[in-house]
Amino acid sequence: MLPLKITPISDAQLKMWSDLDLQNDTIPGMGVDRTYTEIIKNRKGQKVIVGVIDSGVDIEHEDLKNVIWTNPGEIAGNNKDDDGNGYVDDIHGWNFLGDIVAENLEYVRIVKKLNTKYEGKTEASVSAADREEFALYQKAKAEMSKEIEQTNANVTQYTGILSQLKPAHAAMTKKLGKADYSKADLAGITNPTEAEQQQIGLLTQMLNYDDTIPAFIKQVEGGVSYFQGRLDSHFNMDRNFRAEVLKDDADDASTKYYGNNDVDGPDPKKEDAKHGTHVSGIIAAQRNNGVGMNGVAQNVEIMVVRAVPDGDEYDKDIANAIRYAVDNGAKVINTSFGKYYSTHPEWVIDAIKYAAKKDVLIVNAAGNEGINLDENIVYPNDQTKTGAEYSDTFLTVGALNYKYGGELVANFSNYGKTNVDVFGPGVKIWATTPLNTYEYLQGTSMAAPNVAGVAAMIRSYYPKLSAKQVKQVLMDSGLTTKTPVVLGGDPSNTAPFSSISTSGKMVNMYNAFIMASKM
């Protein structure tokens, strides 16, 4: 029986908890540090290229610049396709989005496309041949209306908070002679007027959410701009971002050579590359260089494939991104993205099968809605409707929390006995963010690269193992627990940990190395 952790996790442990070991540290990390000290020691592995299909990566980051893949067949800046792969000057990868940052969600694109055909129609007035498409249109439209209503409500709520908060803060700043006053300062005000009493009540309550009121105001303003941004992009019915910016048809699979080689994207602040930069750091931030943090893997080069906008990715871009990574030497591909509507799923499935045929392992995030994927389809995936798999080299990863026990599974993580393969660390993961910064982010988006890092290490030190064997090692060598876990953050919904993924296990690098060595 593994011990439960009684003492709270320290800040130092939190920053590297996914490297720790359940047996030694009672924290459900992957045993990374233990593997390096006890098994790898001074052994040399082979170089492994990991394709990161994401929002772009800050390739100049202090902790990533030395681990970015450079295309050996391409001469930088000569504006020629030296290696003849169809992509001009693809030095560090390719950007299939060009200068696109914001995008619609897939169900909004579906509504736009089918609106003229079905608006105002009933099922009875639609031909039998169109019934399925009409049902999709109705479902997408209902989802869109619900989400827009919720987003508008959030904008109204946050704007309302600011309209009360700012004048109250201005008044107290003037009265107290400082902006970073505390609850104690507010409580110490003698003989407040009726207006001041209301202001003190409001500000005291808001200080529960942040250390200072200016910091909280910044948080709320961030919320307003986030939700307003969603209304301007995710749900925008008037703009076709792809046609305007990229001049490419998302419904025409025959074009493959579009976009550019700017793999960190068009934003000079690289804000849009935050997600991909964090994912890359988890996998391969340079180890033991005295800056930042250590990635899971050494001997790894990150190939950057930008294909995930702020909004939903296009199936065409994802299919082309997978093929690009496979054709240019990636042995592991990380796919930390997903959506619940897909207009050309067969293109992505063909690319997943292509990766399997070429012995490439795809490590995929399960998604963050806290739902059972055996009852809901998410894209990309490798499942047929019957539960059989299209590919034996596609590994879907759910997210673990650092608390061992009932809260072991992240409250946001999707799960599923057939559709999720394994679990890896995904709550409060410290890693690289653009312009030489570091942050905690969380999601199955962070669990997948943790596992992709382990996969890359096995491919580096046991190069004779196939992608299929590496997937099997990751699933079979993991740790399990008999503790029932809470699912979707709902205390009334619990299940044995062993029953919420195909393997019933959490990835453990130490055990994976031992098992791989015996194969």
TrEMBL record:
Q: Which Pfam families match?
A: Peptidase_S8
Peptidase S8/S53 domain: from which residue to which, for each copy? 45-477
Superkingdom is: Bacteria
Instruction: Tell me the GO BP annotations in alphabetical order.
Output: proteolysis
User: According to its UniProt record, which residues of this chain constitute the active site?
Assistant: D54 (charge relay system), H275 (charge relay system), S445 (charge relay system)
Cite the GO molecular-function annotations of the record.
Answer: serine-type endopeptidase activity
**Family the UniProt entry places it in:** Belongs to the peptidase S8 family.
What the entry lists under PANTHER family is as follows:
CELL WALL-ASSOCIATED PROTEASE, SUBTILISIN-RELATED
Stated name of the protein: Peptidase S8
